[in-house]
What does this fold into?
Amino acid sequence: MSGFEWQVRVYYEDTDSGGVVYYANYLRFMERARTEWMRALGFEQDQLTEEQGVLFAVRSAHIEYLRTAHFNDLLCVSAAIIDQGRASLTFSQEIRRCDDDSGPVCTGEIKIACLDAETLRPRAIPDFILKEIADVE
It folds into this structure.
């Protein structure tokens, strides 16, 4: 898949007392980028749950904090699939300042599992989703 990119502004609420982005919020930014990626493909996660009985949940996350981001920074958050299983997708994600080419502030590898909405057990990713993913690769 070619990479998807989404922008987010750092608000005061995203920072600690020193004005630096609180470490857990990088995961929130990555989650939002993956959600916007799904939306760009034409999928709303609440509709997938209601109409198809599937939901996606984080199975694992490996995060590297490389630099700090600060209050009012404009961040670019990327998401690209690097591995696909029957019931999972693994994303490579990067967060960087949009106006700074000095490198990422944070990188991550996030594995997402497709689950049955009722049983919360792994379930194969529906074919119509896989088709859309394949069409953007």
User: Anything to note?
Assistant: The chain has a mean pLDDT of 95.
